[in-house]
Design a protein that fits this description.
- With about 300 residues, the chain is of the alpha+beta class.
- It has 2 domains: about 230 residues, Hsp33 domain (3-Layer(bab) Sandwich); about 50 residues, HSP33 redox switch-like (CBS domain Like).
- Helices cover about 30% and strands about 30% of the residues.
- It contains 10 helices and 15 strands.
- The strands form 4 sheets. Strands 9-8-3-4-5-13 form a 6-stranded mixed sheet, covered by helices on one side. Strands 10-11-2-1-12 form a 5-stranded antiparallel sheet, sandwiched between helices.
- Helix 1 crosses helix 2 and helix 9 packs antiparallel against helix 10.
- The protein is globular.
- It starts with 18 loop residues before the first strand and ends with a helix.
Length: about 300
Amino acid sequence: MNDNPYYVPGIPEDETKDHIVIAEGLGGLVKCIAINTTETIRNICDIHKTSSSASCALGRFVTGSLLISESMKRPTDKQTTILRGSGPLGGITCVTEYGYKVRAYPLENDIPTEYYRPGKVNVSAAVGEGTLTVIRDIGLKEPYVGSTELISGEIAEDFTYYLAKSEQTPSIVSLGVLIEKGEVTHSGGLMIQLLPGAGEKEISYLEARAKEFPEISFLQQEGFTPAKILDLFMGDPDLKYLSGSPVSFECTCSKYRMSEGLIALGRKELEELVKDGEGIDTQCHFCNKSYHFTPEDIGELIGSC
């Protein structure tokens, strides 16, 4: 038996590694989720060489996407979240697979950084006005698609609005990314959701807890793990930890998958590439890995058109 009160089945042995924790509180009327995404976001930002503003937006969006993906239950389930905005960032595309494996890319990586105050990035200025779209392929006849307008561009509020408007799930979402000297040092998030049976008593309690709750990145600086963050937020002696899981960046690209994209160009385009004699280089948006196709490779693909 584990004597650690913050032990959660499924989390990494090293609790500083990226992971998610799911719990329930207030007598089973509230779902509670917290996540550490520091290494994952650092990896993604390093791949795309993002400026501080883009890193903050990317970190918040990927973390929020992971939080709302927790309902995926089958190995084949997949969620795509798409942010499109009028700001210099342009937007972000994020794909989350079963097991909290995630990949993402911004439309623009190197953008100016505005600050509300020293150390506090104005993410809204980078994002601008726009939309948040969620596409879930969870084994139904057709993928579920939900979309709402952005209400602030700060991303946490936008996920909260999306969940209430498109999925009718009252939620509290808090997201934080800390950048020091251009490097992501902390990234994480919290999501609290009302379950059937919850009423005004639970709503009032959660609103009061959220009002003065510290920023997630500050708590991470102080050594709080996801389980400890949930305990601090809920203040519920009967908080029940249900499960945990590692979180990681993972790209599923391959030369075969890239070839499927080339086949989609059609026979005529492929024949022109063969005549060119130099072949073509393709690049994965998510990990920036390049794949070269020789004229001979492309000739083989023509047979599949």
